Amino acid sequence: MASSPFRQNGAFGDGKWILWSLGLVPIAILSFRIPELMTGWLAGLDDMMRLQQVRDLLAGQSWFDVDQARLLTPEGGNMHWSRLPDLFLAGFILVMQPLIGQAAAEALAIAVWPLMLFAAVITLLCLIMQRLGISRAGQVCALFFFFGSAALFNFWPGRIDHHGLVAVLIMAGLAALLSREFSARSGIIAALCVCAALTIAIEALPYVVGLIALLGLFWVVRGHLEGVRLASFGLALIVSASLFLALDAPGLGDRRMVCDAYGTSHWAALASGGVLLTLLGVFGGWLASWPKRLVAGAVAAALTLGVFVAVNPACFGDPYAAVPDSVRASWLSAVAEAQTLPQLLEDDLPRVLWVFGFLATASLASVWMIVQAKPQERLGRIGVGLLLALAIAATVWQLRGQSFSHLFALIGAGWFAGERFEVWRSRQGVGPLLIFAAAAILLSPLAWRSFGSATQPPVSEADAERESLSSECVAPENFVAMADLPRMRIHTPIDLGIPILLRTPHDVFVGPYHRNVKGIERANLVLIGAPDLAQQRLLDMGATHLAYCYRLGETNRYGNLWPESFAAQMNRGEIPDWLEPADELTETDGVVRLYRVTSE
After folding, report:
1. E strand or H helix at 262
2. What confidence score (pLDDT) does residue 11 get?
3. I need a labelling partner for 526 at 20 to 30 A (CA). Which of 225, 260, 287, 382 fits?
4. Nearest to 273 by CA among 211, 350, 223, 321
């Protein structure tokens, strides 16, 4: 039989050119978005805030201070972000700005960084699959599926929020643990990835726990073969967890007593767990059987959890317990990534089919991948199944987990489709071809997205126009004239606050961040409250101006939910006498209008 380009022969075996081609093609396609970024377009509010944080850092704001001084909330613009995602962006802009100017340097930075992360994550995906014994055909299928998955959107040019970097770190940690050398180096790399991912975003916690549990599983099954790596992982965990606590924002201090970011409780768990893992790695040779190692590992896990709870018991509470009902109704209920599966079943069936339809078929494929594994490959595949199960649970709880669940699901989906391809290639014939085609369709996220779209009623012209106008409200040109005006304190809907913060020198009162719920409540009461109270509320909070965009999706929703509110009045074009136009515009729909708040 002729050699197949999909046959795998080591790290540089035949068929690698196919993977390179498949990786380069979407990168080239996504690069066509760069001219759009050069015009100043940046759609995501978190991406805008990330860029503003980078600007503040370059302007001299302390590395340990990530609060937003121009976000005038009762909490003082309190933010919980890590500085690590700022490093590349700030460094790139700092080097390129003298050569091409600030605007071009920023545009290139926010375009190049996600593409670099994209190249890294698809490389790691193929490396992981190779270490699991999955054929080149399976890797090719996984890449095809990737390009229609929810994981892709974190790597679009302009997506400079932390999600893409966290995904790369988790995949790098998994690749290190799947190394067949069981070396100290792989343990150290995994520990660094675990700590870096957790300090960047607490959303990494399930997968951090999963990676640590995976290494523990390897030790329980393999025994002394994993001793060196387990001890090295434990020592590196202690050192890196401490370094990130001290060197990343906000540094050492009382502000680390938190649950929504890497805090004292997380550090204590990592450090104490690191000590226990080191002891198990060094002295675990006394535990001659896997049941004894399992008990010892379970005791270590229980002690680590006990430390975590003892340091900050509040971290086991509802993270949204303190959110007022008005903020739940006006903001939190509309945050797509915070929706649960029951909410999605009620509100967005097409997304349920796309996200969970793929997860269902890929989970079945992953189980079969484990069953069919060779003995030397089964343990690693079980580990991937463990991470997939954790990610699916996280996605059921909050939709934001879809990026990781889809990423892990690609492995089993790619394996099964690749196996069906190899069967067809070796046997030929219509039957194997039809089976391969059916598998490729049922395991494709893009196919499930199409199935979901088919259940969605056609969008009316009026709805399409409203959506277009809502997008136009945050277009860069809306803020050019505003940026030249003397510094003001501008009240806005939530979705306009961060664009004004990024594109002008003005202060705003609201942003979509859970640490500023008092600010969100205060600002939203202006819009969802009675019109006759809006003026006094604006004056009480110190607002000098109000910015409003007719047909913005957010304010449309306020008008529908609270038909007697100030937002509903503004949506009808009924401008109160105490708002004076502060711009020279006459248009309304899809245009940000600026008004001066008077005391009369």
Report:
1. none
2. 36
3. 260
4. 211
Low-confidence ranges of the chain (pLDDT < 70): 1-15, 457-469
Fill in the amino acid letter for 105: A
**Cα(467)–Cα(463) distance, integer angstroms:** 6
Q: How many CB atoms are located within 10 Å of the residue 34 CB?
A: 16
Asked if 131 and 179 count as a contact pair (C-beta separation under 8 A), the reply is yes
221 vs 226: CA distance, rounded Å: 9
CA-to-CA separations, 240 to 171, 235, 421, 442, 448, in angstroms, rounded: 18, 9, 43, 42, 41
* Alpha carbons 293 and 284: distance in angstroms, whole number: 8
pLDDT on residue 464: 47
Q: Map tokens 């060196």 to a residue.
A: 228
Q: Where are the alpha helices (DSSP H) in 248-348?
A: 264-283, 290-311, 325-330, 341-347
The Cα–Cα gap between 456 and 467 comes to: 16
Give pLDDT, residue 12.
35
The rounded distance, in Å, linking the Cα atoms of 440 and 436 is 6
Q: How far apart are CA 595 and CA 585, in angstroms?
A: 11
Which residues 6+ apart lie within 8 Å of 594 measured at CB? Answer: 482, 490, 545, 546, 547, 581, 582, 583
Instruction: Give the per-residue pLDDT at 10.
Output: 40
Q: What pLDDT does 242 receive? A: 98
Find the radius of gyration of the CA atoms of the chain. Answer: 26
* Residue 335 zone, left/alpha/beta (φ > 0; ψ -120 to 50; rest): beta
8 A C-beta contact, residue 220 and residue 281: no
pLDDT for 457: 66
Tokens of 572: 């009808």
C-alpha angle 452-457-462 in degrees, rounded to nearest 5: 130
Residues 6+ apart with CB under 8 A from 45: 495, 498, 499, 511, 512
Q: Cα separation of 204 and 197, whole Å?
A: 6
- Residue 391 CA to residue 210 CA, distance in Å, equals 9
How much is the pLDDT for 33? 87
Per-position DSSP letters for 131-174, written without gaps between them: HTT--HHHHHHHHHHHTTSGGGGGGSTT--SSHHHHHHHHHHHH
Cα–Cα distance measured from residue 39 to residue 54, given in angstroms and rounded to the nearest whole number: 19
Report whether 153 contacts 426 (CB < 8 A): no
Cα–Cα distance measured from residue 146 to residue 140, given in angstroms and rounded to the nearest whole number: 10
Distance CA 160, CA 50 (A): 7
- Overall pTM surpassing 0.90 (yes/no): yes
Choose among 463, 491, 492, 476: nearest CA to 555: 492
Positive/negative CA dihedral, 97, 101, 107, 108: negative
8 alpha carbon, distance to own chain's centre: 33
The H or E element spanning position 548 is strand 545-549
* DSSP per residue, 55-103: HHHHTT--TT----TTB--TT-S-----STTHHHHHHHHHHHHHHH-HH
Residue (of 407, 404, 438, 405) closest to 421 by Cα position:
438
Tokens of 431: 């039957």
Instruction: Compute the distance between CA of residue 39 and CA of residue 250 in angstroms, rounded to an integer.
Output: 33
